[in-house]
Amino acid sequence: MSKKISLFGYGKTTKALAKLAKQFGSFKIYDDAFAGSGKDELGNLLLNPSEFKPKKSKLEIASPGFPPQHKLIKKARNLISEYDFFYDAMPKSVWISGTNGKTTTTQMTQHLLSKFNSQMGGNVGVPLAELDPNARLWVLETSSFTLHYTKRAKPEIYALLPISADHISWHEGFKRYEEAKLSLLPRLKEGDVAILPELQAKKKIAKKCKALIISYKDEFDLAKKMSLDLDKIAFKTPFLMDAILALSIQKILFKKADYEGLNSFKLEEHKLEELFDSKNRLWVNDTKATNIDAVLAALKRYEDKKIHLILGGDDKGVSLEPLFKSLCKLNVELYAIGKSAFKILELSRLYKIKARNCEFLKKAIRLIDQSLKKEEVALLSPACASLDQFKSYAQRGELFKALVRKL
């Protein structure tokens, strides 16, 4: 039976599963990178997708980022997610999702709950196969990809940050992206809790949910509903929403809010990371801002300054025009890089915003260096993914910092 489990893709999630071959028996792993058939050191079969036989597969588990348009997904008859696969062994869990801030919210929540024997995983970098089922609680950053493939598993607490257009190419539209984010609601039971943005809480699927739903308009509204003292929270926009959600989760579980513990949390690199060059001018590495909402949050922080904004990369099929409707109200100059540079320049002309075609990050920094003043800010908040020119958003951010340090 175990030999009939098929894994689609050979990413972090499925590689972690493949290591469990001694426990579950060998897997058949299908990936476009495999030209022919072979075996790994654990005896798992490595196969090209053309060799997949649906009738001979009892269960299929896809890497979360494996697109639903792929021929393997379309052929699969028993497709589940890693969440479904480990659900029977899963302790109580908190799932955190949204468009922006889910990693920070997950990390803040784990920071608060770690003393209660919680473990953090999911999209934050630790596959479920590597988590301890004997932990008291799993805190899982949960992507729309995972939610799309999850049909059975559910958390005890679901915290959803505000959502906006993202991963449109993968989901083939915002409606399906939103549906993925809400797809688990029918599985929640009485006693479970869902924290939802007001717009999603009004959806039909939410109104039929048996769990307690706490809806919010914004971070201030949620703080009021959860009786949280904003004056005791050290984090400001855009991290205030993350902090309030983390405290809300702690309060639901343990009826307390540990402000001092929260305020000791250190933000990770690549999110509004401020640095100064040799001339004491401010540069901000916000390379993790790969969608419009994340950029808008960064712009709000520096709206009282002239902003030299580096935009561009892979726009993932999302129109950047909504961003430009906000940009035209600010004192901003754009530096377009990457695959979406032409689109950015076209929108800049349409909205009468000064923009330069840089193509590469190095050129953008060189041009900004020529005109940046001390009272201004240079901001890398690209609104796009990095994979058109980099291995990751982190590599893009590291190059940005390295180039600024040389100025």
Strand content: 15-25%
Count of DSSP H/I helices: 18
Biggest sheet record:
6 strands, mixed
Radius of gyration: 22 Å
What fraction, in percent, of the residue positions are helical? 25-40%
Categorize the overall geometry.
Answer: globular
Structural class: alpha/beta
Task: Write the topology of this structure.
Elements: E1 5-8, H1 12-18, H2 21-24, E2 28-30, E3 38-39, E4 45-47, E5 59-62, H3 71-75, E6 79-80, H4 82-85, E7 92-97, H5 102-113, E8 118-122, E9 137-141, H6 144-149, E10 157-160, H7 168-171, H8 174-182, E11 193-197, H9 198-201, H10 204-207, E12 212-216, H11 219-225, H12 240-254, H13 259-263, E13 273-276, E14 282-285, H14 292-301, E15 307-312, H15 321-327, E16 332-337, H16 341-350, E17 355-359, H17 361-369, E18 377-380, H18 393-405
Parallel strand pairs: 1-2, 1-5, 2-4, 5-6, 7-9, 7-10, 8-9, 10-11, 11-12, 14-18, 15-16, 15-18, 16-17
Antiparallel strand pairs: 3-4, 13-14
